[in-house]
Write a structure and sequence with these properties.
With about 325 residues, the protein is an alpha+beta fold. The chain folds into 3 domains: about 45 residues; about 180 residues, Alpha-Beta Plaits (2-Layer Sandwich), CATH 3.30.70.3460; about 45 residues, Arc Repressor Mutant, subunit A. Strand 3 and strand 4 form a beta hairpin. Helix 2 crosses helix 3 and helix 6 crosses helix 8. The radius of gyration is 20 Å and the shape is globular.
């Protein structure tokens, strides 16, 4: 992968609403060149913008579910994934090429709501889909894609950690939902579609960011086209060394390949997402430094859906 592409992916992942003028300076090229390169990657769906929203502040929780196909033919896979994409409370669908077939994340008001929706899906597709595990999320830490560049960004973006609820005004709700659907939509276009003055849009967006409902603007990558190796690793530490989880958190912050660290409830205690430009053996490094009782690895193929808020029927 060319250095300019790696730098662009790094900066766009940190802020998908970055202006092309600033992007050009960051990757050391002209504004026109940066704009062309970014638009080419977007048009080919190699990069897609996302808005990072802390849904816990709206009273929502996340639950991760692993599924395997009972009939793993391409037509069945395609049809099932398309059906799951229509489920409003499902915010992420990631297809695995090894370890498990689908990793699905729900965003729901409570576990009762999750159980109802998930049971309906399992029952409806009982001859095509099997649930393997269910893991409620406690907190998630997101990191920069430091493996793409020589410099190191140590930012630790926490999601779902703060349980204090936030009541939205009408304008805040409209702007947040519109950005959830269109993360890179220009403010002038937001104003036109929502029939809200631009100055109000700017003020509202700023308030959502200051109150940490909007935590940032990220991106989803096409890992196959970019030849990026992505792994989702589930870990359980030995009972006598449970305190090692905090030390492990520090380890993940300082590891250039780990882009996400999540504490979960259930069979495993921790989930980490690791990406690299070469074949990974990060599990060896983890096991050499921490008392892992058991682990499970998913090699990712493609993310079919990625949001931070459930879809709302309009």
């Amino acid at each position: 992968m060319k250095e300019k592409i790696k730098k662009l992916l790094f900066e766009y992942s940190r802020n998908s609403r970055i202006t092309t003028k600033i992007l050009g300076k960051k990757i050391r090229t002209s504004q026109q060149s940066a704009s062309y390169l970014k638009n080419q990657l977007i048009s080919k769906k190699i990069i897609q913008p996302t808005i990072i929203i802390d849904a816990v502040k709206l009273g929502l929780i996340n639950v991760i579910v692993g599924f395997n196909f009972l009939k793993p033919d391409n037509e069945t896979k395609r049809d099932l994934i398309n059906e799951l994409k229509k489920t409003e409370s499902i915010i992420q669908i990631e297809e695995g090429k090894e370890g498990i077939d689908l990793l699905v994340e729900y965003c729901v008001p409570n576990l009762s709501a999750f159980n109802k929706i998930n049971t309906e899906i399992v029952t409806k597709y009982e001859k095509k889909l099997r649930s393997v595990f269910v893991l409620p999320v406690i907190v998630t830490h997101k990191y920069a894609r430091n493996y793409l560049v020589k410099k190191f960004d140590s930012e630790d973006l926490v999601i779902s950690g703060d349980r204090s609820l936030r009541k939205l005004s009408d304008n805040e709700a409209k702007v947040l939902l519109e950005l959830a659907d269109h993360p890179d939509k220009p403010l002038i276009d937001l104003s036109e579609s929502l029939k809200i003055p631009v100055k109000t849009i700017i003020k509202t967006k700023k308030a959502l960011e200051q109150n940490l409902l909007i935590k940032g603007y990220g991106s989803v990558l096409d890992y196959s086209k970019l030849e990026i190796n992505r792994q989702i690793i589930f870990l359980r530490f030995t009972p006598e060394t449970i305190k090692e989880i905090e030390n492990f958190h520090i380890f993940t912050i300082n590891n250039k390949n780990i882009i996400k660290f999540t504490k979960i409830i259930g069979e495993y205690q921790v989930m980490v997402v690791s990406e690299s430009l070469k074949e990974q053996e990060i599990i060896k490094e983890i096991r050499a430094n921490f008392p892992v009782e058991k682990y499970f690895i998913i090699k990712s193929d493609k993310i079919h859906k990625k949001r931070y808020l459930p879809e709302v029927e309009k």
